[in-house]
Amino acid sequence: MPSLQEKYIEVLSRCLTESRLSNLRNAIANRTRYITVVLEDIYQSQNVSAVLRTCECVGIHEVHIIENRNKYTINPKVVMGATKWLSIHKYPTGKYATNHSLARIKEQGYRVVVTTPHAEGKYLPNLNVEKGPIALVFGTELSGVSKDAMATADEFLQIPMFGLTESYNLSVSAGICLYHLMEKIRSNPAIMWEFGEEEKINLFHTWLRLSVRSWKSIEKRVAEEWNRL
After folding, report:
1. CB 156 within 8 A of CB 121
2. What is the pLDDT of residue 186?
3. In the chain, what are the helix, strand and coil shares in percent, each to the nearest 5?
4. Using CA atoms in the order 18, 34, 82, 20, what is the torsion angle rounded to 10 degrees?
5. For residue 124, what are the contacts with CB-CB under 8 A and spacing of at least 6?
6. What's the pLDDT at 79?
7. I need a labelling partner for 80 at 20 to 30 A (CA). Which of 74, 136, 223, 224 fits?
8. What's residue 101's pLDDT?
């Protein structure tokens, strides 16, 4: 006998086309928490939104937002609904927001890899993705990551450059790094980057709810029928 959640999934799935269901399943199959993104004190909404959109497109599921001085906002025209499919974590603001936030992320088993052109670090192609899950930190547009982030970093990362300009735009940097790193982990059979089966089922259920406007009334009816059995 199927579980109640399986019954919910079965009934909600009938509300979507096979094409839409296939898209949801394919996205979940390519989702990962092995790499997560940390955005520290970003003040331009279009940059935050562009990074979030890139995360969703490449399969990054979790994003961490640190607000030291600048409040997190998004630009709907840029983000294009990507936040709907992401898990976004925000932390208490204040003087030590970066220290506390990165400490909590490290407790989850991540190594903090700070992107900066101002410290000697590994170039992007040389970053070892087998060492463990990566929390990739991007800093504010003008000055980059804070001193606290630099002090907390386990490793530093640089993107190879061949021109005279000091750095890439924030959203471009994120796009280059995330696409490259996702390709590396997906092609490496030694890395367990995918969601577990239970996680996939739970996320599929969540996304069905996000896709079916009347999911609450549908699940209420299903639960009532279930309880009568």
Report:
1. yes
2. 97
3. 50, 15, 35
4. 0
5. 157, 158, 159, 160, 176, 177, 180, 181
6. 65
7. 136
8. 93
Q: Hey, which residues does 69 pair with through a beta bridge?
A: none
Q: Which long-range contacts (CB under 8 A, 24 or more apart) does 211-218 make?
A: 211/12, 211/15, 211/16, 211/20, 211/24, 212/12, 212/15, 212/16, 215/12, 218/11, 218/12, 218/15
> Counting beta carbons within 10 angstroms of the beta carbon of residue 72, is it exposed (0 to 12), middle (13 to 18) or buried (19 or more)?
middle
168 φψ region: left (φ > 0), alpha (ψ -120 to 50), beta (else): beta
Cβ atoms of 12 and 214 closer than 8 Å: no
In the sheet that 122-123 helps form, which strands lie side by side, from edge to edge? 87-90, 62-66, 35-40, 134-138, 111-115, 155-158, 122-123
Distances (CA, A) of 17 to 20, 31, 168, 212: 5, 21, 41, 11
The length of the chain in residues reads 229
pTM of the predicted model as reported, rounded to 2 decimal places: 0.92
Which residues, in sequence order, are bridge partners of residue 144?
A: 140
Burial 165-195 (b: 16+ CB within 10 A, else e): eebbebbebbbbbbeebbebbbeeeebebbb
pLDDT of residue 169: 86
Instruction: State the 10-residue block means of pLDDT for the chain, 229 residues long.
Output: 92 97 98 96 84 95 87 69 90 84 96 88 93 95 85 93 83 95 97 97 97 97 90
The predicted pLDDT at position 54 comes to 95
Q: Please return the burial class of 163, using the count of CB atoms within 10 Å of its CB with bins 0-12, 13-18 and 19+.
A: exposed
